Amino acid sequence: MPLFCILNMAGPQPGPMHVGVCRLVLRMPENGSLKDKRQVMRSLMERVRNRFHVAIAEVDAQERWDIGVLGVTNVSNDRQHTEAALNQVVEFIQETRLDAELTEVDIQVVAY
Question: What mean pLDDT comes out for the span 20-41?
Fold first, then answer.
């Protein structure tokens, strides 16, 4: 029997799990190449990971030098904590990356 089935048969879960997902679109008109963009994105993702302990990855527009799309996720047993963590990431990016303009922010939190 697969491991995930054994874990699911362990009985009722003690409480809800809240999964927060954030999609960020950044415009970086000052970048002149993919190399410049990747340097900005790599630095930004590393700083966000280290500061907020969230999962973050470039999820779209990898071949565009002027646009970056990031996916950020956080899991918690508290919906407010999940929402706050993602909102703090958005604020951090707005305040620290003056070379990248946030053009879209989409945050969703789902309870399981």
Answer: 89
